[in-house]
Amino acid sequence: MEIDISRKVSFVIKFALPAILLVIVLLNLCIWLYGQYNAYLTFYDARVAGTFLQTKTLTDGTLEKFLVKDGEDVTAGQALAQIQPNVTQDDINKLQQSVDQAQQQYDNMVSLNQQGSTRVVTQPAAAAPAPAADDSQYQSALANESKMKNLYDLGAISRNEYDNAVSAAESARASMNQGSGAPAPATTTSVVSAPSGVTPDDLQMAQTRLNQAKMALEEAQKNTGLTELYASANGTAYYTDVEEGSNLSAGQNVLDIATSNYLWLEIKTTEEQANKLKEGAYAECTINGNIIGGTVAQIVAPDGDEPKYTVKIFIPSDKMGGIKPNMIATVKIPIKK
Q: In order along the chain (337 residues), what is the average pLDDT of each group of 10 residues?
């Protein structure tokens, strides 16, 4: 007896095959969507970079011993090293000058903290209003530039740090102009008020320097022997090329201190990759065997002979233990949607 299965086969061909094709299409669509919303760039050559707060001796002498280990976390005011001074009257006079200068710097910073500052700024003439976010970033960068200028004038920061603040303000202004989507309008010059930007941490650092200068002077005047160097801020202490038993000269740097504001990861990349990244994005950093969550803080366009973009990634200060300059890290950053 023959059984006719043609109708069943026809049913399968008519409905099952389209269903299978639909499932395949849906799976591919899901894979594509997953890739779009979970895509990231991985950099294997991120480098720890930064600038440091120097801890200098204020008198000639001999480095007796370090009181902290290389790479140890320290707090502001903590003793870092002991020095046996070679005290002369000329040394005492120099120390007195250091106290006077530190006192003047501290007094000036206190005064700046109680008042704002004004700057003559060149801005785009009125046209299409800039996005609120761009304007906010520009005002923040402008305030930071004003702060850094005040600190530079006081001798509290280096020229490089001040130049970085100026560059950041110019970059923010350029970004605000480009965000308008229109040709660059004529510029106008106006006087803009900005806060001094002196923070409690800045005042604490200046106070610590003043106290250190006073203590060094008192020790020299009493000529009682060992004097100590103290940390000017919270951070991580790193040895320089100075060793225990070395002869020191006044003004010589003995230790460097890296703080969360002075240590970051730096990536060199192409314009194509830089355009896929977004400031403020989360960055998964693998460094020194540990995975640390960081933030894309700044994407800097090439300047001068530098052919590549620079991506700066800041990491939390409580995660900096054991991290030293020039270490290599692997960084994974989601691409912007």
A: 60 68 78 62 89 84 92 89 82 86 86 63 51 66 73 67 79 70 52 61 84 83 77 87 90 86 85 90 89 91 86 82 82 85
Q: Determine contact, residues 111/97, Cβ cutoff 8 Å.
A: no
- Cross-strand partners of 266: 47, 312
DSSP output for 150-196? HHHHTTSS-HHHHHHHHHHHHHHHHHHHHTT-SPPPPEEEEEEEEE-
Q: Classify residue 275: in a domain, yes or no.
A: yes
CB 331 within 8 Å of CB 265: yes
Helices (H) and strands (E) in the chain, counts: 7, 16
| Pairing assessment for the beta strands 328-334 and 263-269 based on DSSP bridges | unpaired
Overall number of domains in the chain: 2
Identify the pLDDT of residue 195. 56
End-to-end CA distance of the chain: 65
Quick one: pLDDT at residue 183? 52
Print the domain residue range for 128: 116-195
pTM of the model: 0.41
User: What backbone phi and psi angles, to 5 degrees, belong to 267?
Assistant: -120, 135
Residue 28 resides in a domain: no
Supply the pLDDT for residue 244.
Answer: 93
* Cβ pair 298, 269 in contact under 8 A: no
131 Cβ contact partners less than 8 Å away, ≥ 6 residues apart: 176, 179
Q: What is the DSSP string of 255-274?
A: EEEE-TTTEEEEEEE-HHHH
